[in-house]
Specification:
Keywords: Signal. By secondary structure, this protein is mostly beta strands. Helices cover 7% and strands 50% of the residues. An eight-stranded antiparallel β-barrel has the order 1-2-3-4-5-6-7-8. The chain has an eight-stranded antiparallel barrel with strand order 9-10-11-12-13-14-15-18. The N terminus is likely disordered.
Length: 487
C-alpha cells in the first residue's frame, strides 16, 4: 500500500508542476531545430462551443492566450485574448471540436537571436485530445524554414510506455536468469586467482533487460562486489536523456545479490512521466560443483537451476516535466546547425605525390568541423580535370565505411596552387542528423593556405611531399553557403 500511495502522490505532483513550463537550458536556436513544438494548456470549453487555451512555444519560451469562437462546424480560427506588443513573428491557430475530442492546429513564425545573428523559423503541427484531458497536450512541429525537416525525437528509456509499467512499479521486482559464478583459486605461481559472476536482470515492470558482470580493476582481476550492468542503452543513441541506470553487487560469502535500479514510466499519460527508483536483494540458491585442476588449482562453478525472483522495495519517485522522456538529449551542434551557423572544413593528411613532375597529384582528408562522435575524416584523391576550369580537379572520394550520417562531401572539386599553397574546395554535402528521411543539401566554397613546412621523400620510384608534422591539421571556413531540400 505504501508503494501505491507513493506513485499516486507523484502523479498528483505532476499535475501541479505541469502548470508551468519546465526549465530548459538550451537556447532558442538549438531548441527550434530539435524540438519545434508547443504545449496546449489550460483548455476550457463553453456551452456554446467556444474554446480558450494557452499555447506555450517550447523553443522561444513564450506563451499566448487564445480564444476560438465556434462560428461553424469544422475548423475555427483562434485569436489572442489580449493584444500584445508587436512581436517578431506570426501565430495562426485553429480548433476543431467533435464529439468527445478536440483537435488543435498551429502555424507559427518566430525569430531567434541567441547565436549572434537573427534566424527565422516557421513550424506547423497538430494534435488532438479528449475533451476531459487536463494535462498539457504536446503538439510536435515540422519546420518549414529555414529548412524543411521534422526533427526526430528520442525513443525514450526501455519500457517507459509499456502498458502497466506504472501499476507494476508499485510492487517492484526483478527476474534473474542465466546466473553463474566461477571461482578459480590459481596455483600461486603461474596463474592468478580468477572470479567471474554473470546474470541477466529483467525488470518486471517494464521488461528492461541488463547483463551484469564484474568490472575489471587495474590489475585485471574481477571483483563481483561491484557489478557493471548495461542494457540496450549501452549501444543506442536514441534513448534520450533518461536511460535506465542499474547498480548491483554480489557477496561471495553469503551468495547475496543486491540491486538498485532507476527506470521511468509514462504509460498512463506521457505528460506525467515518473522517475522510479527501487532496491532489492536475494540469496541465490546456487548448486555448486568443485574440481581440482592441475598445478593445485581448484575451480568452483555455481549456477541456479531456475529463474530467481528479487522482490524490491520502492524508493524515491520523482516527477519529471511533461513529455521530457522522449526529448532528445542535449548535444553540441551537429551537421545541420554547424552548416547553417558556422560551416567549416577540418583538413588533415595533406600530401603531394610526384611533386616535381607535371603529373603530380594532391590528396588530403576532410571532415565537417562539428560534433563528430566516433567519425573520422574521409580521404579525398585527385580525380579527373574539370573541363573548362584550368587547375581544377574532380574529387575522388574515398570509402566512408558505410556511415549512415556522413560529415564530408558527396561530391566536390578542388584546386591547389603550389606556389602559394592555396587549396580551394568547392563541395556539396548533406546533413540528416535531425531528420534522416529529409536530408538538407548544402553547397559552399572554402579557401585556405596549407600553412606547414612540406618535406619530401622518395619511396621506391615514387616521391611525395607532406607536412613535417604528420599530425598537422587546419580549419577553413566555408563561404557562399546555400542549401536546398533536394540534391
Amino acid at each position: 500500500m505504501v508503494a501505491r500511495l507513493s506513485l499516486l502522490a507523484a502523479s498528483a505532483a505532476v499535475l501541479v508542476s505541469a502548470q508551468g513550463p519546465p526549465d530548459v537550458s538550451a537556447g532558442c536556436t538549438s531548441k527550434s531545430f530539435s524540438i519545434p513544438s508547443w504545449f496546449v494548456q489550460n483548455v476550457s470549453y463553453s456551452e456554446s462551443g467556444d474554446v480558450s487555451f494557452s499555447l506555450w512555444n517550447r523553443a522561444t519560451n513564450s506563451t499566448a492566450d487564445l480564444a476560438c469562437e465556434a462560428k461553424e462546424s469544422g475548423w475555427n480560427a483562434c485569436a489572442p485574448v489580449q493584444e500584445t506588443e508587436a512581436s517578431d513573428g506570426t501565430l495562426q491557430a485553429s480548433v476543431q471540436v467533435s464529439e468527445g475530442s478536440a483537435a488543435f492546429r498551429v502555424n507559427e513564425t518566430w525569430t531567434c537571436s541567441d547565436r549572434g545573428t537573427d534566424m527565422i523559423f516557421t513550424a506547423v503541427g497538430n494534435n488532438s485530445a479528449a475533451l476531459n484531458y487536463t494535462s498539457p497536450l504536446l503538439v510536435k512541429g515540422s519546420l518549414l524554414e529555414p529548412v524543411a525537416i521534422t526533427p526526430v525525437y528520442a525513443d525514450g528509456p526501455t519500457g517507459h510506455d509499456t502498458p502497466g509499467c506504472m501499476a507494476r512499479s508499485e510492487e517492484p521486482s526483478w527476474v534473474l536468469s542465466h546466473v553463474s559464478y566461477t571461482n578459480r583459486t590459481g596455483d600461486g605461481v603461474n596463474t592468478m586467482p580468477f572470479r567471474m559472476f554473470n546474470l541477466i536482470l529483467t525488470n518486471s515492470a517494464n521488461g528492461y533487460q541488463a547483463s551484469c558482470m564484474p568490472g575489471t580493476s587495474f590489475d585485471y582481476s574481477s571483483d563481483p562486489a561491484h557489478l557493471v550492468c548495461a542494457g540496450e542503452e549501452f549501444q543506442s543513441f536514441t534513448v534520450g536523456r533518461y536511460p535506465v541506470s542499474t547498480t548491483a553487487s554480489f557477496n561471495e560469502t553469503t551468495s547475496e545479490f543486491s540491486v538498485q535500479q532507476t527506470w521511468f514510466c509514462d504509460d498512463q499519460d506521457p505528460a506525467k512521466p515518473l522517475n522510479i527508483t527501487a532496491t532489492g536483494s536475494v540469496e541465490l540458491p546456487f548448486k555448486c560443483t568443485s574440481e581440482d585442476l592441475e598445478g593445485g588449482e581448484t575451480e568452483t562453478i555455481c549456477v541456479t537451476e531456475d529463474e530467481v525472483t528479487v522482490e524490491g522495495e520502492l524508493g524515491m519517485v520523482v516527477t519529471l516535466p511533461p513529455y521530457v522522456i522522449e526529448d532528445p538529449a542535449p548535444a553540441r551542434d551537429g551537421c545541420t546547425l554547424s552548416s547553417l551557423l558556422d560551416p567549416r572544413w577540418s583538413f588533415s593528411a595533406f600530401n603531394i605525390f610526384d611533386a616535381n613532375s607535371s603529373s603530380s597529384t594532391v590528396t588530403f582528408e576532410v571532415i565537417l568541423q562539428t560534433d563528430r562522435g566516433f567519425q573520422y575524416p574521409i580521404p579525398i584523391y585527385q580525380g579527373a580535370p574539370v573541363e573548362g576550369n584550368a587547375g581544377w580537379y574532380e574529387c575522388d572520394i574515398g570509402a566512408d565505411g558505410g556511415n549512415a550520417l556522413p560529415l564530408w562531401p558527396y561530391q566536390c572539386s578542388f584546386k591547389y596552387t603550389t606556389a602559394t599553397k592555396e587549396l580551394v574546395l568547392d563541395a556539396d554535402w548533406s546533413c540528416q542528423d535531425l531528420d534522416r528521411d529529409h536530408p538538407v543539401y548544402f553547397s559552399g566554397i572554402s579557401t585556405s593556405i596549407v600553412n606547414a613546412t612540406l618535406t619530401c621523400q622518395t619511396v621506391g620510384s615514387q616521391s611525395y611531399c607532406g607536412p613535417a608534422d604528420t599530425g598537422y591539421t587546419w580549419v577553413a571556413p566555408i563561404s557562399n553557403v546555400t542549401w536546398d531540400m533536394s540534391a
